[in-house]
TrEMBL record:
Main location: cytoplasm
Protein name stated in the entry: Dynamin-related protein 1C
Keywords from the named record: Cell cycle, Cell division, Cytoplasm, Cytoskeleton, GTP-binding, Hydrolase, Microtubule, Motor protein, Nucleotide-binding
Domain Dynamin-type G span(s) in chain numbering: 33-302
Domain GED residues, every copy: 526-617
Protein family according to the UniProt entry: Belongs to the TRAFAC class dynamin-like GTPase superfamily. Dynamin/Fzo/YdjA family.
Pfam families reported in the protein's UniProt record: Dynamin_M (PF01031), Dynamin_N (PF00350), GED (PF02212)
UniProt xrefs under Gene3D superfamilies: Dynamin, middle domain (1.20.120.1240), P-loop containing nucleotide triphosphate hydrolases (3.40.50.300)
GO biological process: cell division
Oligomer status and interactors: Forms homodimer and may homooligomerize and heterooligomerize to form the phragmoplastin complex. Binds to PHIP1.
Domain of life: Eukaryota
Organism expressing this protein natively: Linum tenue
Length: 617
């Protein structure tokens, strides 16, 4: 195999591998597939595109008919094999099957087209990938595109004309695409759809090869020498004339090799084209394209290698983000789990300590929510004159108090202090929910954990279980604080109060000791009691406003920072290898992504090495 054949064959293999891996472009950045030159076959409907392709391949394998026959791009890769071996074909969508019956290949192209477009006249830009291996071909990649048309026929959408042109342009606009512009000789070259489009996307003609078909169908007395010799429309590359099989030959299933021989005889014996016979025909076209393709590839090698190196760096960077494969031994798995837990713990602590948002919400509970809840407690109702009188009277029972209603005071104080339990427990719950939310956010923000959904769930469950324990301890503690205020009253507070006896409304009127004590106390007396209790409760409120946050932080926040996953660490230390492996079970999509990246990396490295080894021979 010559250097040219090996270089183009290598490009074919790389393009095929790119297609298998889905790395065939379409995004903002140029893919390796797009960077490698290929040949797009462009022409109007019924211009003879299919016949040219079959002549180049030497096989009758393309669907035929009227109207739009090619309704999906056909990426045709030709691979030259050793003499004596039989021809065969392979479809990318059926990679394990070799096709030796080319009539079946034609049917499969039609069936695969229908699978996407349906049995309609619609088109699709999803390509069919076909490789043909034969001793009678040159290494080449050809892309057969739907034929350009000027009007939509019955059964087609009105946009079909523009849709086809847009699809063809998406290929020929690329600077590495060689344009094979097919025009029938029995039509005016000035009206050629293929030449018109090629002139727009390649005004200098550097990428365009003109092919003139149906030379044998021209009117008697006319010829296409003005076109073939470049006088009608000059291109930088020579025009090539093709004589396709006649309909009668097609109907008789004339072998393509015989058709090639008949084509050579036509040019050699033609009085008009005899002097050009060595540069006419499908065989010459294939060799011309292959030679030019090799030249273009050599010119593009520096930029191709640069693209490959850039892509290798990008793939390595993405593999680092996705994460490298995990070792299978239990020690390495346990170490990985612990490292991932520590990564989560760092993010969680950053939220609490202010490196990330969230911890400030806990302060908000103490600075806003708790004071607001304390202000809303129903002390006005509980210490109203009517209720004070009721509580004091009930506390006295059948024997009214003699000097100060101590039992009444205690009942009023106990009842008031009981109201503090609600805001205290609410503070505990509010901080608990903030901590749970921070756990969720921390898991989501820990990059290293994103590939392990099972471990994410395990960490979340373990962290929330710990937070529940911390909440229970915190609730017990704040309720104890409230109960402590009830269990022992501050005596000095009451000793300082001036408990002066009520004076009679008339100073000249002496109190009547025969009147029952409860009748002697008017509203002013009970208001005085309510006022004294309220003053004491305000003192307790100030104390709890400061002590409840301390208890909550000590029992919940401090413990969350110190020992959120301690119980989890103890549990995983006892687990078997299979259980550890299950915890590191990755997201299937992520595993598939890593596998694809690894394959792409191997492809690009292999391509770089092979291009280096072949290109400079």
């Amino acid at each position: 195999m010559s250097t040219m054949e090996s270089l183009i064959g290598l490009v074919n293999r790389i393009q095929r591998a790119c297609t298998v891996l889905g790395d065939h472009g379409g995004g903002e950045n140029m893919s390796l597939w797009e960077a490698l030159p290929s040949v797009a076959v462009v022409g109007g409907q019924s211009s003879g595109k299919s016949s040219v392709l079959e002549s180049v391949v030497g096989r009758d394998f393309l669907p035929r008919g009227s109207g739009i026959v090619t309704r999906r791009p056909l990426v045709l890769q030709l691979h030259k094999i050793e003499e004596g071996r039989s021809d065969y074909a392979e479809f990318l969508h059926q990679p394990r099957k070799k096709w030796t019956d080319f009539a079946a290949v034609r049917k499969e192209i039609q069936d695969e087209t229908d699978r996407i477009t349906g049995k309609t006249k619609a088109i699709s830009n999803i390509p069919i990938q076909l490789s043909i291996y034969s001793p009678n071909v040159v290494n080449l990649t050809l892309i057969d595109l739907p034929g350009l048309t000027k009007v939509a026929v019955e059964g087609q959408q009105e946009s079909i004309v523009q849709d086809i042109e847009n699809m063809v342009r998406s290929y020929v606009d690329k600077p590495n695409c060689i344009i094979l512009a097919i025009s029938p000789a029995n039509q005016d070259i000035a009206t050629s759809d293929a030449i018109k489009l090629a002139r727009e996307v390649d005004p200098t003609g550097e990428r365009t090869f003109g092919v003139l078909t149906k030379l044998d169908l021209m009117d008697k007395g006319t010829n296409a020498l003005d076109v073939l010799e470049g006088r009608s429309y000059r291109l930088q590359h020579p025009w090539v004339g093709i004589v396709n099989r006649s309909q009668a030959d097609i109907n008789k299933n004339i072998d393509m090799i015989i058709a090639r021989r008949k084509e050579r005889e036509y040019f050699e014996t033609s009085p008009e084209y005899g002097h050009l016979s060595s540069k006419m025909g499908a065989e010459y076209l294939a060799k011309l394209l292959s030679k030019h393709l090799e030249t273009v590839i050599r010119q593009r090698i520096p930029s191709i290698i640069a693209l490959i190196n850039k892509t290798i760096d990008e793939i390595n960077a993405e593999l680092d983000r996705v994460g490298r494969p995990i070792a299978t031994d239990s020690g390495a798995q346990l170490y990985t789990i612990l490292e991932l837990c520590r990564a989560f713990d760092r993010v969680f602590k950053e939220h609490l300590d202010g490196g990330r948002p969230g911890g400030d919400r806990i302060y908000g509970v103490f600075d806003h929510q708790l004071p607001a809840a304390l202000k809303k407690l129903p002390f006005d109702r509980h210490l109203s004159t009517k209720n004070v009188q009721k509580v004091v009277s009930e506390a006295d029972g059948y024997q009214p108090h003699l000097i100060a209603p101590e039992q009444g005071y205690r009942r009023l104080i106990d009842g008031s202090i009981g109201f503090f339990k609600g805001p205290a427990e609410a503070s505990v719950d509010a901080v608990h929910f903030i901590l749970k939310e921070l756990v969720r956010k921390s898991i989501a923000e820990t990059e290293e954990l994103k590939r392990f959904p099972t471990l994410q769930s395990d960490i979340a469950a373990a962290a929330n279980e710990s937070l529940e324990r911390f909440r229970d301890d915190s609730r017990k503690t704040v309720l104890r604080l409230v109960d402590m205020e009830s269990s022992y009253l501050t005596v000095e507070f009451f000793r300082k109060l001036q408990m002066e006896p009520d004076k009679p409304t008339n100073s000249k009127e002496a109190p009547n000791p025969a009147v029952p004590a409860i009748d002697r106390y008017n509203d002013h007396h009970f208001r005085r009691i309510g006022s004294n209790v309220n003053a004491y409760i305000n003192m307790v409120c100030d104390t709890l406003r400061n002590s409840v946050p301390k208890a909550v932080v000590y029992c919940q926040v401090r413990e969350a920072k110190r020992s959120l996953l301690n119980h989890f660490y103890t549990q995983i230390g006892r687990r078997e290898k299979e259980q550890l492996g299950a915890m590191l079970d990755e997201d299937p999509q992520l595993m598939e992504r890593r596998t694809q990246l690894a394959k792409r990396l191997e492809l690009y490295k292999s391509a770089r090495d092979e291009i280096d080894s072949v290109a400079w021979k």
